[in-house]
Structure formats: C-alpha cells, structure tokens
Amino acid sequence: MSTQNAIQAENQRDLSMEGKYLTFELAREEFGISILTVKEIIGMMTTTPVPSTPSWVLGVINLRGKVIPVVDLRLKFGMESRPFDDRTCIVVAEVNNQDELLNIGVVVDSVNEVANVKEQDVEKTPSFGVELETDYIQGMAKNGEHVCILLDINKVLGGEAIAQLRSAA
Predict the structure, then answer these.
(1) Residue 136 — pLDDT band, cuts 50, 70, 90?
(2) Is position 29 within any domain?
(3) Is the dihedral of CA 140, 30, 22, 163 positive or negative?
(4) Is there a contact between 108 and 24 (Cβ–Cβ < 8 Å)?
(5) Domain count, the chain
(6) CA–CA distance, 110 with 87 (Å, rounded to integer)
(7) Range of the domain at 38
(8) CB contact set of 44 (below 8 Å; sequence gap of 6+)
(9) Which tens digit of pLDDT belongs to each residue from 99-135?
(10) Chain-wide mean pLDDT for the chain?
(11) CATH number at residue 36
C-alpha cells in the first residue's frame, strides 16, 4: 500500500465515528463515549481512598465482589472539582490496555442520553493554534449549535493512567 493510500485509510478510520454514544456532562459541557465501552451506570457510592495515588483517582469501590478503581473525570481533565449531588454518577467503562480489558469507574456530573451520532455530524478535533494534547478526543459531534466532545476512553485512561490506577486497585 502506498503512503498516500495509507494516509487516506487512516483518515477514513478517523472519520468513521458513526454510532451510539453515552453522553454526559462535566462542568456544563457535553461529552460522549462509545456505548460499546459502557458496562453500567451506577449512583455515586463511597470510595475507599488508596494512598499515593494521583488526586484524580478517588479510590476504589466494591461492585458486586469486584474491586474497581474510580476516577473523577473533572480532576483528570484539570477542571474545578465540585461537591457530588443526586445527579452525580459513576459510569463503569471497559478500557482496553495492551489487549487487557479493565473495568474502571468514571465519575461524571450527570448522564444525559444515548445519542445516535451520524458520520456527517462529526468533525475532527480542531487545531487550537498551540500544541495541546488532544489525542483522547475522537471528534466533535454537531447537533445544531450544540457540540458534544467525543472521547476515546482508552486514550483518556490508557498508558500512564492505567499504571497509576493499578497501584490503586
């Protein structure tokens, strides 16, 4: 395959983001993750803190006999923390890390809906004019004047984040 064909194939893969996404809010912004990665959504529960973990790792929960690390996505993204309320919940996502599937809880402000995103409604992540790490953003889904940031949960919680979570679990 020529280099140009490889680039075109990669661009096609990047743009092929059509599907169902669980949408949720963080700091009044809407985000979405592929519904295929979502195992369940549970109400906020008490976490057991684990010493020497990053501030964005809240600790672990015992979910039906399985110990699951829990991440506060607001803190992971450098957003201001806020008190949990009755809409705060944990989205348990299945994260692929080097061919190993891990269940990780992600705290979000609230869950909105399962949205059906069409390929023509998704744009690539825009350039911000400065070098920012945005690899974890798959694209921007447009819905009228509204934009939903589509996340690749494997990149949000992959690599170094997984190593830090393993020390928590």
Answers:
(1) confident
(2) yes
(3) positive
(4) yes
(5) 1
(6) 5
(7) 18-168
(8) 84, 88, 89, 90, 107
(9) 788 999 999 999 999 999 998 888 887 665 544 566 8
(10) 83
(11) 2.40.50.180
